[in-house]
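note to self — DONT lose this again. spent like an hour looking for the file last time. sequence + predicted structure for the chain T wanted, 193 res
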Amino acid sequence: MAVILHESSLADAAEDLWGKLPGHRVEILNGSIVVTPPPDGPHQMTLTWLTVEFHEAGVKRAGLRCVPGIGLWLPTGPNDYAVPDLSVVEAGFKDALVEKNCYAPDAFRMVLEVTSSNWGDDLVTKVETYARTGIPVYVVVDRKHDLVLVHEDPVGDGYRTRSTYKRGESVPLPPPVGVSLDLSVDHLLDGDV
């Protein structure tokens, strides 16, 4: 905490932490700095598998891109931003740059998080934050509880619809994502390809 006390702003403190903690993800959610350690192998294997699945489903032909780890500017505070594990964005998302390598929310169709040690943020804080931001679809690969959750149709600080999928099932992505794709819950949870 001493670092935060000596910084001129929350954004400066986050940037300082990012520089001092290589490989860690630093975000500002609802005015608080959240630091996540580097992901494990299965986490990254899930993201690699998803990137291939989106490519094969024609994400580029649909005028979209599947991009891991890009910044999402949040309207929840003056310096708030998140770095979702994976995002489906409009092809021209680079034109929506706000600042600090973060892009405007209206370029995002879907964000996806694979839970790690900070699973509570993914299951509560980010549900509220992404809903308030207007992200149409938020998917959580909940490795803590062995489930996949799909949130869609944001309203206020929540989503109108939350679907839960268990092992042995497939997750059909909702139409706002922009590509038709059914994803194996087992592959999402385990990172197996």
